[in-house]
């Protein structure tokens, strides 16, 4: 396993990566009209950077069965009016590339923002980010690696020999159902398959990107989920907007290779420290097992 961390602009470094050498591009790029210490982009500037600049290189370096995930958060023009750039990007992917499936990350710890102020604004809290999954329809994916644990209730229904017919008047839908048969069918179809809304807290209080000084980091659990799902064993994960290294850290922890590109020196330095610590921990664990 190797992890390469590059300090520089991804538009300069991506062209140096060999064609069809990467299994997964997993990234949380900057969003337009969001002020960060690393810059602010208009919609046109963001489009030029991501769609016209980064994506052609991403498609070049991906293997034939590789795919890319862009984690993106919608934002608003003002209260009560959303910006359309995210949906325009998703439509572009559907038209010019391919969206494998719509998948969303639900930040289950999102706190109310100013938009939620009662009476004056009264909107819902923002807790969903799009995981725009791009690639061929037959791209690599290992559903077994991300299956949920089967519920105890489903196990009981599946194994029970008791009569398990639920009649119309008992079911909320008004449709009768044979619970045991439904549980068996669910099990046959992989009844513990994940939903396309991924419920992960934004971060933790000890090692999250926010704690490390990055205000727009991705939770490691989300990065880990995607690596396990769409990267083959020993494959390579690339993040053109690596930040403090969460995506490359997830690759390393899953036995994969990582390539991270970051142009802000302080974030690059943090990523180096995280990867170095993770590599040392992995060596220690291997020594203990041996």
- How many strands, which pairing sense, and closed or not: the largest β-sheet? 8 strands, mixed
CATH fourth-tier homologous superfamily of the largest domain:
Vaccinia Virus protein VP39
Radius of gyration: 22 Å
Number of strands: 12
Report helical residue fraction.
Answer: 25-40%
Structural class comes to: alpha/beta
- Strand composition percent: 15-25%
Strand order of the largest sheet: 1-12-11-2-3-7-6-10
Topology:
Elements: E1 3-7, H1 10-13, E2 22-27, H2 43-61, E3 62-72, E4 76-78, E5 81-82, H3 85-96, E6 99-107, E7 128-134, H4 152-159, E8 165-166, E9 177-178, H5 179-188, E10 197-200, H6 220-230, E11 236-239, H7 246-253, E12 257-262, H8 265-289
Parallel strand pairs: 1-12, 2-3, 2-11, 6-10, 11-12
Antiparallel strand pairs: 3-7, 4-5, 6-7, 8-9
Helix pairs in contact: 4-5, 6-7, 7-8
């Amino acid at each position: 396993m190797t992890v390469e961390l590059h300090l520089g602009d991804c538009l300069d470094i991506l062209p140096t990566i060999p064609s069809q050498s990467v299994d997964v591009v997993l990234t949380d790029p900057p969003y337009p009209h969001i002020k960060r210490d690393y810059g602010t982009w208009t919609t046109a500037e963001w489009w030029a950077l991501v769609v016209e600049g980064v994506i052609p290189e991403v498609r070049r370096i991906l293997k034939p069965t590789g795919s890319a995930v862009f984690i993106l958060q919608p934002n608003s023009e003002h209260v009560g009016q959303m910006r359309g750039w995210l949906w325009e990007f998703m439509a572009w992917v559907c038209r010019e590339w391919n969206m494998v499936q719509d998948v969303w990350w639900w930040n289950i710890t999102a706190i109310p923002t100013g938009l939620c102020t009662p009476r004056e604004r009264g909107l819902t809290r923002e807790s969903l980010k799009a995981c725009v999954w791009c690639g061929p329809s037959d791209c690599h994916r290992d559903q077994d690696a991300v299956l949920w644990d089967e519920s105890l209730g489903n196990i009981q229904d599946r194994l029970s020999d008791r009569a398990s017919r639920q009649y119309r008047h008992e079911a909320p839908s008004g449709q009768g159902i044979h619970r045991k048969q439904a549980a068996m069918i669910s099990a046959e179809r992989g009844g513990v398959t994940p939903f396309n809304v991924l419920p992960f807290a934004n971060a933790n209080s000890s090692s999250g990107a926010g704690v490390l000084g990055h205000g727009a980091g991705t939770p490691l659990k989300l990065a880990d989920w995607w690596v396990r799902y769409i990267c083959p064993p020993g494959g390579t994960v690339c993040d053109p907007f690596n930040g403090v290294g969460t995506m490359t850290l997830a690759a390393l922890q899953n036995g994969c290779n990582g390539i991270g590109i970051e142009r802000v020196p302080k974030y690059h330095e943090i990523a180096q420290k995280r990867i170095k610590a993770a590599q040392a921990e992995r060596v220690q664990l291997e020594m203990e097992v041996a």
